[in-house]
User: What shape does this take?
Amino acid sequence: MNTSSKTVGKIYQTENYSIFKYRIDNRPINETNVNNIARSIQIMGQRHPISVDYNMNIQDGQHRLEACKKLGVPVLYIVNKDLMSTSQIAELQSTTRSWKTKDYAHGFSKDNNENYNLYNKFCADYPEFSHTCALVLLSNKTERNSAVEESFKTGDFKVKSYNKAKEVAELLKSMSPYYKGYNKRGFIFALLKMRENKDFEMKRLLRKLPKRCKELLDFSKTEDYLDTLQDIYNWKETKKVYFH
Assistant: This one.
């Protein structure tokens, strides 16, 4: 044995599953993931112990614990002296199965973060809008913002104005009779850019849409939506307004 080696931790084993506690800010249990892990444990055993704090709260490995319970086999675990925040748990688990958007939203909302509660409410009320679009609307941006998306994963996301986000969402929904792709990212970002212009009048656009809506196609770029909406907006108008 190398004399420079030292013991840095102990691995424990137990069949008493009741000693473990589940953190409410951890991601929900995924039954498919549990079944996949159970099959792996049946073949190769539990290769990685679960991690708990001194209060036996699971920091990493709740799916491994569920798999061991399903199989009725002892579970291996280690005790971590450090207490972990929601974002630290997400980072720790990213090496196994990365957290999805709903996992972050669930975890931080359970952490009593009102911003994530509002995000969950908005997504429940407007499920047709993607995660990216929801973040843009709730942060009152006009386009995708990498800093906002990163803040969502660290628990630092802030809702700028929930009422304004709802107002825009309802406005977009009101346009659905004229364009079925009203919830597409490029279309939303184009409309948000138009609303930034002090001379923009929503009523004017809505007057023109019924007659020119066939020009709205499923474009891949925001600029194409903006060009088309600008043409529709300025149709038969003496006073032109430009949004680029």
